[in-house]
Amino acid sequence: MSAGKVYLLRHGQTEWSVSGKHTGRTDVPLTEKGRGLAKAAGELIRRVRGDEPPALVLTSPRARARDTAELAGFTPDRVDERLVEWDYGEYEGLTTPEIRETDPGWTVWSHPTPGGETPQQVTARADAVLADARAALPGGDVVLVGHGHFSRVLIARWIGLAATEGVRFAMEAPSWAVLGDERGVPQLEYVNLAVFG
Hints:
The chain has helices at residues 15-19, 32-49, 63-71, 96-100, 119-136, 148-158; strands at 6-10, 56-59, 78-79, 142-146, 176-182, 185-193. The chain is of the alpha/beta class. Strands 3-2-4-1-5-6 form a 6-stranded mixed sheet. The protein is globular. The termini are far apart.
């Protein structure tokens, strides 16, 4: 059993997250509301986990994630390229209804993404991040600040599911998921934990 837990934080609201545009590589800033909710997310998680400094804090290189980490009160130990959002390829910046005009029934969970990442590629990234997180847990909690779809993949992989099973979990902007274990069995303790406003 580990001494710590893994805390996943999805970045705060952006104009693209409000409109439903798929935002992978594009560096979209937080809205003012997103900045305020990122601060509130930090206050919320301190009530859940206390004020003990985490053993490790990693953040995606995207400004929306780095800013969310800072506003929530966390200083990243490093920026980790593996925490970027699922690469949507040609569908970057499009909404699901727009994509479905030419690719009926499309979801990132069930259909190919032309020019983007496959579920197998996303799985490999998630598994590598989680291996590093597990290695740090004997020293305390790990905080990973990233994105919606990729955080849902991390949840799925933590509990032994395929990356595409991330569809079954919600992660609003900004919200937390808490990954722990019960006697060595990986467990999802909280998901979509947030202050909504």
